[in-house]
């Protein structure tokens, strides 16, 4: 699935990136070039997945090495980054910033410099296109968990980023909601980078990167990486060795 | 404040928020300036008529919103009956009911975002000290996170009672404060991910 015409600045490029959080090294010397359309990043809890996500999004800076998203430094060019990369956080309650649906949807557009009236018009049209015109002005507190996830996704999509980072996008949702969201993700034209510990959700990816202890344990097509990951997780699950403390 | 906006569309919904707030200020001023029960009674009739313009469902909702006022009405009425000052009592009660009903009416017919826009405009002279967009964002965040934090507090309270059998009371203060800080950290990150506060 690799497109042959990929330029070196296309996608996300990490070069020797290291991150240390509160004195503990979390990512070591990570070099990756992410340009495929569907990428999965898999690993156990504490393997550095979430840190990698924050690093790519420019929410934290590497201690050594560089990170480039479509050729720009994500920690510096914040405004430019808005059209390059969007993030869907795991918990919608940590992502939704505004009390009503339309304010939440319009915020990203306003941040990108869209005039207020245009942003409102885009939000109205967007809701109508998805058959949710009655959501205008509705309090986000009254939405169900699945509806909040949908709202977070739409808030990101309205900003039309080239890449969307998904942090455990289906965790904790009931099955119909999972199916609905997965279908919405599959239809997106954007590059999706999914971060998860659930191998089943990554089988349709172009590339899967297995992160272990802050470095890449395996990198390749899902048919190659996922069986290795699952075998190792089975082996670890068989051991009774969850007594080691981090740090 | 947010859930107080009525979903029933009335002609008043279409008026500009600034206009309604200015009219409310003038109306309330007039109420406090007048000492005649007749004029105050007429003012109350006017407010009731405006409620009825929105239909009976809307008016009934408006009447329900006045419920917190009843204990005060009762106390004031009893006091004036005891003092045998019916005239004074009528003035105070009519004034209070009309003022609160009018204020509720504006709240019920104005979207929160429009209220905030007015506030932003009024705060414009302060802009060198306090950028109006920051102020509006801060207000929105407060309204957004009141229900989130109260739910968080309820969860922690349940977790406490699940292992204690007693209500946590003041003991919940530190965990709720720490959880709020934790949440704030995540929200700050989400805000930064979408272009920050600027």
UniProtKB/TrEMBL annotation, chain A:
Please list the residue ranges annotated as the ABC transporter domain.
Answer: 7-238
Kindly state one GO CC term assigned in the UniProt record: ATP-binding cassette (ABC) transporter complex
Report any Pfam family annotated for this entry. ABC_tran
Q: Which domain of life is it from?
A: Bacteria
InterPro entries, sorted: AAA+_ATPase, ABC_transporter-like_ATP-bd, ABC_transpr_CbiO/EcfA_su, ECF_ABC_transporter_ATP-bd, P-loop_NTPase
Gene Ontology terms for molecular function: ATP binding; ATP hydrolysis activity; ATPase-coupled transmembrane transporter activity
- PROSITE patterns recorded: ABC_TRANSPORTER_2
**What residue range is the signal peptide?**
none
Q: Which UniProt keywords apply?
A: ATP-binding, Nucleotide-binding, Transport
Similarity field? Belongs to the ABC transporter superfamily.
Report what the protein is called.
Answer: ABC transporter ATP-binding protein
The record lists the organism as Pseudotabrizicola alkalilacus
TrEMBL record, chain B:
Q: Which Pfam families match?
A: CbiQ
Q: Where in the cell is it found?
A: Membrane
Membrane-related topology note: Multi-pass membrane protein
Q: Does the keyword Ribonucleoprotein apply?
A: no
Instruction: Please list which residues make up the signal peptide.
Output: none
Segments spanning the bilayer are 20-53, 65-82, 88-106
Highest taxon, organism lineage: Bacteria
A GO cellular component annotation here is: plasma membrane
Q: Which UniProt keywords apply?
A: Membrane, Transmembrane, Transmembrane helix
**Which family is annotated?**
Belongs to the CbiQ family.
The molecule here is called Energy-coupling factor transporter transmembrane protein EcfT
User: Which organism's genome codes for this protein?
Assistant: Pseudotabrizicola alkalilacus
């Amino acid at each position: 699935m690799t497109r042959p015409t990929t330029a070196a600045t296309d996608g996300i490029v990490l070069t020797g990136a290291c991150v240390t959080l509160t004195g503990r090294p979390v990512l070591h010397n990570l070099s990756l070039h992410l340009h495929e359309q569907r990428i999965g990043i898999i690993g156990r809890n504490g393997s550095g997945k979430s840190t990698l996500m924050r690093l790519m999004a420019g929410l934290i800076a590497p201690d050594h090495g560089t990170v480039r998203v479509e050729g720009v430094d994500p920690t510096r060019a914040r405004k430019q980054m808005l059209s390059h990369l969007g993030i869907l956080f795991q918990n919608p309650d940590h992502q939704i910033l505004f009390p009503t649906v339309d304010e939440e949807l319009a915020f990203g557009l306003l941040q990108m410099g869209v005039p207020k009236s245009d942003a409102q018009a885009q939000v109205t049209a967007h809701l109508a296109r998805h058959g949710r015109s009655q959501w205008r002005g509705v309090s986000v507190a009254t939405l169900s968990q699945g509806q909040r996830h949908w709202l977070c996704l739409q808030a990101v999509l309205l900003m039309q980023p080239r890449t969307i980072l998904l942090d455990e996008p289906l965790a904790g949702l009931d099955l119909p909601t999972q199916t609905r969201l997965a279908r919405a993700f599959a239809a997106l034209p954007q590059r999706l980078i999914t971060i998860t510990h659930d191998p089943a959700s990554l089988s349709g990816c172009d590339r899967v990167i297995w992160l272990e202890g802050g470095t890449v344990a395996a990198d390749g097509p899902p048919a190659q990486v996922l069986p290795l990951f699952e075998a190792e997780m089975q082996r670890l699950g068989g051991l009774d060795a969850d007594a080691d403390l981090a740090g | 404040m947010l859930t107080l906006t009525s979903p029933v569309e009335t002609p008043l919904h279409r008026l500009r928020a600034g206009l309604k707030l200015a009219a409310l200020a003038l109306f309330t001023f007039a109420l406090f300036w007048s000492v005649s029960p007749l004029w105050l009674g007429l003012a109350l009739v006017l407010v009731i008529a405006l409620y009825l313009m929105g239909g009976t469902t809307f008016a009934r909702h408006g009447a329900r919103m006045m419920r917190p006022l009843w204990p005060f009405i009762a106390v004031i009425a009893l006091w004036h009956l005891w003092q045998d000052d019916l005239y004074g009592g009528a003035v105070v009660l009519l004034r209070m009911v009309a003022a609160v009903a009018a204020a509720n009416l504006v709240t019920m017919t104005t979207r929160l975002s429009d209220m905030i826009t007015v506030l932003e405009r009024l705060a414009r002279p302060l802009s060198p000290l306090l950028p109006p967009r920051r102020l509006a964002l801060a207000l929105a965040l407060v309204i957004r996170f009141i229900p989130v934090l109260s739910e968080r507090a309820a969860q922690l309270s349940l977790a406490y009672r699940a292992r204690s059998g007693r209500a946590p009371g003041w003991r919940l203060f530190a965990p709720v404060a720490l959880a709020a800080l934790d949440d704030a950290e995540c929200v700050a990150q989400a805000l930064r991910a979408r272009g920050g506060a600027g």
